[in-house]
Amino acid sequence: MRPVIICGGVGTKMWPMSRVDHPKHFLKLFDGKSLFQINYEALREKFRPQEIYIQTTVDQMDLVSQQAPDIPKDNCFVEPELRNTGPAAGYMALMLEQKDPDEPFFLVQADVLRTPTNKFLEMIEETEKLVKKEGKMVTGGFRPDFGVMGVDYLVCGPKLVDTAGVDFYKIQKFLWRSTKEEADKYIQEKSILVHANHYSWTPKALLEAYKTHAPNWYESLQKIKTCIGERNGAGVREVYSEMEKGPTEDVTQHIFEEGYVALLPFDWVDFGTWESFFKYRAENKQYMPGDNVLEMESNGCYVQKADKNFVALVGVDDLFVVDTDDALLVCKKDMSGKVGDIVKYLKEKGKKEYL
What we know:
The protein has helices spanning 35-44, 61-67, 85-97, 117-134, 180-186, 203-213, 215-229, 233-241, 249-252, 274-283, 339-348, and strands at residues 2-6, 53-57, 76-79, 105-109, 112-115, 138-142, 153-159, 167-175, 192-195, 200-201, 260-263, 267-270, 293-296, 302-305, 311-314, 319-323, 328-332. By secondary structure, it is α/β, with parallel strands linked by helices. The protein folds into two domains: 2-270, Spore Coat Polysaccharide Biosynthesis Protein SpsA, Chain A (Alpha-Beta Complex); 286-354, no CATH class. Helix 1 (35-44) links the parallel strand 1 and strand 2. Helix 3 crosses helix 6 and helix 6 (203-213) packs across helix 7 (215-229). The longest helix has 18 residues, at 117-134. The chain is globular. The two termini are 37 Å apart.
């Protein structure tokens, strides 16, 4: 099995700390460690550095080297630019194919926290057995407590009876991102899981799926393969930059019903917004505002700041305050999903110094 840590996005909803040159999965917000480091250290309990791979971008490669210096350079697949997960996953499969087309991979998103680690590693082990036995794609999912917006769903079919420690189900149907009403309806059915990725398959099989269901992407990937063989880095960048943006699901939606989904045996926490970050910290008694935060007649507020700054809150409730050296965010709890719109505004106004 080849675990591949995926780290390419920015995390705009966690601005102003998450920036292009220092995105959220590299921020050391967890007792001096980043989500990237936490996931890498979890994999190190089972794999040697030479067995772990990284999928990242040119802008983030230096951060990878800083936070995981023992990863071999050849194990880092550097995307020339961001083109969404479809081109990225295809590029990853292309690079792994040249090492061993039939050795399974397991994708690990860097911006997610998985606990406990032993259950995460157990899922990787059992997934490898299933992929090698059945030759089918495997992904992951979890049962939500309430309707979740902006996510995809998987309808489960029969459960496999011969798996140990991890529950795998045949996938009956894939449901694209839904409306609030649809999401509420789905969770009434115990067979519904939120799709949490963790794709696992072989490079050869994934590329064959691209060939069938995304021929334009596949054609570009074959051109990139030729450029790599000719050591033509400029050609790789040129072809990749011309690939149409799109999600991996543009391919996998056609083959989900042939594969399996693992019910995640661990807690899966996606820090997509400041709300999710502060909620997790508070629930786990990890939120400590420090001596330089003063709250007077205020309730339900959370502060993340540069250490040298003093922040005082007076007579306000349910606010997030995120203070950096050059930007300040003050946001109502239930509006944290709008933070990404600030980044759009800054882009439109050409204020690159805040991005």
